Amino acid sequence: xxxxxxxxxxxxxxxxxxxxxxxxxxxxxxxxxxxxxxxxxxxxxxxxxxxxxxxxxxxxxxxxxxxxxxxxxxxxxxxxxxxxxxxxxxxxxxxxxxxxxxxxxxxxxxxxxxxxxxxxxxxxxxxxxxxxxxxxxxxxxxxxxxxxxxxxxxxxxxxxxxxxxxxxxxxxxxxxxxxxxxxxxxxxxxxxxxxxxxxxxxxxxxxxxxxxxxxxxxxxxxxxxxxxxxxxxxxxxxxxxxxxxxxxxxxxxxxxxxxxxxxxxxxxxxxxxxxxxxxxxxxxxxxxxxxxxxxxxxxxxxxxxxxxxxxxxxxxxxxxxxxxxxxxxxxxxxxxxxxxxxxxxxxxxxxxxxxxxx
Amino acid sequence: xxxxxxxxxxxxxxxxxxxxxxxxxxxxxxxxxxxxxxxxxxxxxxxxxxxxxxxxxxxxxxxxxxxxxxxxxxxxxxxxxxxxxxxxxxxxxxxxxxxxxxxxxxxxxxxxxxxxxxxxxxxxxxxxxxxxxxxxxxxxxxxxxxxxxxxxxxxxxxxxxxxxx
Lengths: 358, 165
Fold this sequence. Notes:
The complex is a heterodimer.
Chain A: H1 4-18, H2 21-58, H3 74-84, H4 95-112, E1 117-119, E2 122-123, H5 130-138, H6 141-151, H7 155-186, H8 191-196, H9 203-206, H10 208-225, H11 237-240, H12 250-275, H13 288-296, H14 299-318, H15 326-354
Antiparallel strand pairs in A: 1-2
Chain B: H1 5-23, H2 27-47, H3 51-76, H4 88-110, H5 127-137, H6 139-160
């Protein structure tokens, strides 16, 4: 059976037998870096393709179908086009910050990759504060967005950045509170502990209604944090041309675009990890045969499958709900989601103390 | 490698960025340097193995408070012409006052006892230890601070309301 854990241990054993101590470590670091960048490139290409196909089928179209089989290479061609384009820096822009901003956003997205468990025992850094680390690093992306908006010296960019930042800062609260619900239930911030606590059932199943509420709040918050429809006010084309990245072109624009899709992936990966059990296979009570069949599916496939399902859900939202106004957006967060998730947190705490969960 | 090398690199960076907060001409640059300064201080927490404190520091300061600072600064858009000019008397008074504050702070820290460095392997900064200290030994101050914060929040909402008689 294919397993990423075995692959990693084979590579590590080979490196440690051939290279001396500090060098084996350095080579592992370089390999992790290259793998992360490769993952980013593949994710970017596949998610953009998926988005276009999903959108097309929802609107009874075919979507990209000319470049390569079923249009698979369409996004590669688009990326090539973006690479060839000139990266303009506007005259009145703050040159240093303007050029730094896309990298800030990208680096923030890359750093969150560290604690995500892609498969059984396949994780870059199992930090003891796991989900808090994710919350801390994801709040840094806001600074990159504000930098991009301000340094462009363009009022559309500034307004877009302001909307985007206000949205991210406020929705981060309810995302954090719904993650906390699971932290209380599993009793640990560490990602591996949270996954292991779901060995006898995913939290969404054994956590009853409060966890389902937390999950719904989390999905709404992730959609808003990634500035996607119906919360895409930050780049509402009809009002703000393109939001904070109006002035960006070529590869720098591509970095923002990529970071946006990576953030969707990361949000969904976190959601899949804490609510849907990460790489844990689906088990039903005492059905031994069924459980064995489920165990046979590699853990990496379980993780990717759950994540892609959540990404599909978020893409589905885009073609289902109309865009909100700014005041409706902020009302939804501060007057509905935040109080709901606070009360929900109390209910979950009571549940954890009384041991009502399965 | 010198084990205190990371500390000195971080300390140099934090002092440099703190100086740049004061010295840079554009207010937005100051705030960005301040954010950088907070990151280097977060790095110091990490060196002491206080990962929870690091995460909270980044979330609260870099992620929330500084973003609000950036918001306001970006919108008031300060220019050279609009900058209010202070008289030399005021400048001198401000320098003397700030110098006095520095003197007091240095004098206060001079008498302080030196604590032994916490070993890097200690788990004193982990979430569970911090939680036990906050809800056990320091329960009363902790709850008092929460009341203080609540009062400040209610006050801010009251001030922010437009139609208060």
